[in-house]
Amino acid sequence: MRVVLIIVGSLLALAVALVLIVPAVVDWNDYKPRLTQAVRDATGRDLAIDGDIGLSILPTPTLSAQGVRFANLPGGSAPDMARLKALDVEISLMPLLTGTVQVERLVLVEPFILLEQTADGRHNWIFEAPAPDAGATGDPQEDFTPPARGSAIQFDNVRIENGTLIYRSPDAADQRIEKLTATITAPTLYGPYQANGTLAYQGNPATLEASLGSLEFDRPAPLSLRLGLAERGNLAFSGSLQRSPKLSVSGRVEAESGNLSTLLNTVFGGKTPIVALEQKLALQGTLSATPETLALDDMLLTFGAARGTGALNARLDGTPTVDLVLEVGRVDLDKIMGDIIAQRGAEPPARAQGQDQPQGRLQGTSSGLPSHLPEDINLSLDLTVEAIDYRGRLIRQLRTNFALEQGRLALNQLSAQLPGGSEASLLGAASNGPDGARFEGSVEMASTNLRDLAEWLRMDLSKVPAERLRSLSLQSDIAVDSRELRLSQIDLRVDSSKLTGGLTYLLQSRPSFGATLTLDRLNLDAYMAAVQQRLAPVVPEQLPRTDGAAPRPLLAVLDSFDANLKLQVGQMTYRGQQIRNITIDTSVLEGVATIRDISVADLAGARAKLSGSLAAREDAPAGELLFDLSTRAPGQFFQLLNIQAPVEPARLGTLAVKGKLAGTPTAFDVDSALSIAGAEMKVTGSMGVAQFPPRLDLVAEGSHPNLAQLLTAFAGRSPTDGPPLGDIRLWLTARSGETDAMAMNGRIEAAGGMLSLAGDVNPFAPVPTFAVQLEANNANAVRMLRVVAPNYRPRGDRDRPFMLNTRLSGNVSAFDLADIKLQMGDIEMAGAATVSRSGNRPKLTAKLTANDIVVDPWLSDPDRAPKSKMPVPVPVSGPQGWSREPLSLAGLRAMDVDLNVEASAVQLGEYRVDEALLALLLQDGVLDLSKLEGGLFGGTFMANGQLVANETPTMRLSLRVKDADLRQAAASADQPQHIRGLADFDLDVNSRGVSQAALVGALAGEGRFAVREGVAEGFDLASVSAQLKELDSAAAFLGLAKAAFGGGETPFQRLDGTYKIEKGMIRTEDATLVAAAGEGKVTGVIDLPKQLVDAQAVFTLTEHPKAPPFTVNFTGSLSEPQTNFSTRALEAFIAQRAIERGLMRLIPEQVAPDSGAAPATQTPATPAPTTEQPQSQRTPTPREQLRQMLPRLLNKE
């Protein structure tokens, strides 16, 4: 409003001055000097008329001037305060003759006015007027009198064409009104006035409408003003102007804008949208203003959906003072942000490609305070916001009250209630100092539900247990200026932990801070998830790579900030271990870190200390870093680091690490020592990391005086087991060469043997590579094996040489073992293998050849082996049984194997397999035996099968044996030769189970066997058939049968049959023996789970087709079955035949009662008692004689 009044007043003043004053003092062009001097006398500044002055009286008085300039005040930003390209005035002649000045037309062409406030506070519109007359009072109100109504001056048409008005101040952008084209009318010099026009404000088109009533000294004049900025906003005032007793304006003011951000950018010349202000704005109020005061009462402010009320009061005389009171009900910030997102989209505008980041101060380094608090204005604000909707919750009772007076800001209150039962407040004062404005005060914050507050702030605390992060309180003094932010007297409490001390952060482009803090206790376990993953081993291919470029120095971060830190921690709990008395005293300055003391008095049972200095710059002095750690409880220390100890930590004894690193960040020397479980290891050398790969020259030496003790610690070996092993020594060197690879040499001497390697290793390739020769030898292979198996005592001579030689080449993902040469005693193997680690598990592919592999010398000697301390599984039946211990098949999932082996022979005991071939594939826990074949017992055999290591293992096996010599098989097994001949054997079985017992109990399948041209030993079936022709006594047959099955042999043409297996039960129904003297049929069941047999062999004699068969039963233990004979039917047959042959011959011999003689061909036997005794001495009847004879027949031998 003030700018508009200045514009209108300036234009009218210029027009009046040009029309009324200039013609009165100028006499054509010759009078220019007198005119300019008159203006200089009146204003103290120069007036220049570069063009001609024209004046004509008839027919119409006309005045014209070209190129008029009015000087600016000294020190202004431009030489001219006002310029006018041309002035044209036409005055009606007849009214002029009557004393009335009727300006018919007044045209100002391209007028230019600059209103300016200089840096020293001067205004160019205030002129150095001449000293007042003696009679003047000096009161502007008393000097101002309206023109007399008799001196009528009338403006019919005042026109401004393409005018420009600029307002300029030293601390703000120019306010520009350009392209001003307006028409002004005034019936009299004292009004009423009307003005209409168009203009461009800050480059934006606008319209102007104004009217002012007649200026009466004792009555208010109606005043209205409307300024339109198209869609950017509108300003309207409707009221009155009062000249008495003081000049004043009062009325109703209304302003509105569809987008406050756009309006502000229009007013202040900004171009970047202010997202939060892209809302509708409406302002209404009652305005009353005088030259000294301004008041806006009954103010109603609408911003978006928010509504507020308040009042504004200002005093403009002396030091301006502005007081604002504003009360806002509820602000829906979520809706405001939602509208913005809906209008603009959620994604921020992308930075143009190649556009640089802003230069200058780093983001976040400003204090937020102005460099200097204004001292030429007083301000006060009392703002209350009842509620703010933000992120779905409410911020309540936002209150701020501050007062700025004479350059001192008093922040009496800044507080709010936040979600989670939280409150925050800030109070203090700011004033100007030598380094600019400085604020000092205090901050407080408290929360009874910290998790709720964090959830509102979109902080993910899901990994922190629910019972933690429940409460927070903070009290601290705060001081901030343009140089630093300082927090002192900090008292921060979170749950049961308390942090005290102070912190200073320098607000500059290089981050710098200092802190002195004390933490009483912290239970980290309570804030961590229950499940903690073990530290996985770092595989080289997971390390960051730079593709040959030199890596950024590890310490480069130290050159990016300065710091000074002192921290004391009383007690910390981590992974169940206590850490006490932590001290950190260190500083970082200009790229050099000085570690005065980093120590822990009790680090889970260990003591640790670190001191020295580290430099990030090459021009800094060489640094030195000393470290020392020791513990007698390595188990606690490993648990703290979440490392799975390779062995029982109690076996490791004292663990100590000590050493020094000295040098620059790119080249330093290493001198370190490690002691664990009685072993000593020292690493010395140098490292250069200025280039990539780094240059290394390291030597490692280690030893232990007793290898057995070392194995006791790391392998759980009993120190009394096995022979003495002596000491162990290790040497290893690694040196960088001309290429990226390092030359590596190493040797281990232990247990009378040696292991060495030599070759190139490149651990810095994208996938680390190596090519080394590996050699191992020991004159006593048994001694070497007893290192890992101390109770191993094989048969035969112990002095058997061991030798291994191979070349390893490849990378950590896949490597080859070429030219493998292995000797174990008399066994020699050769071949090649590859190992791949690219899949889910390592895979070994090998193809080997061997000479005769004699296994017996490598088997344990039961007479020399110590008694086993392991319990023997309790058998189900018999002295041995199937183990019920779960099968340990985890090894089948540890790696994949593709193995092919060819051996000239494999011999175990008397079993010898010639030209043995083995092909197996182990993949994903499935062992496929695709081929196992060779020559066995003069015949051939082939086998294949599968074992699946599932939760419940499954197996299948197919076996084919052809032309096997059973005599050779029995001799090889050192078993009685019950059957001789050539045998074929087929077997197909499958099963599933978690133990041996379960697998045997679930065994299912089928098979067949066939023996041809054989001999069955242990019985003589032909003898039974031959002697049966002469037998006429059942008792004699029993003796003969027992004798026949107690020895002898029976040749047969064939012995074959089939069998089925179900649930571990082998059942046959058709086993058949075909011999010259007879045939045998075998049926029965073998119970493998219980190790029992129940079988029956039924023999028939081919030479006695009418004779019934006899049976042999096998029952009981599978290892020692009981044999029982069943011959009742055959005995009856013999008795019947005996009756038929000798009845007539035997009856006469039985007529005499005293007769007891047997036939001449048989030995008499004691007669068996008869079933009925005679009652008296009489001659028996024929029937009775037969009944007495039968028992004798049956008892004859």
From TrEMBL:
Residue ranges the record marks as coiled coil: none
AsmA domain residues: 3-241, 877-1070
Biological process, per Gene Ontology: regulation of protein targeting to membrane
Residue stretches of biased makeup (Low complexity): 1157-1175
Pfam families cross-referenced by the UniProt entry: AsmA (PF05170)
Signal sequence, renumbered to the chain: none
Bias (Polar residues) ranges: 354-369
One GO cellular component term: plasma membrane
Region listing for Disordered, in residue ranges: 345-373, 1153-1197
Source taxon at top rank: Bacteria
UniProt protein name: AsmA domain-containing protein
Species of the source: Oceanibaculum pacificum
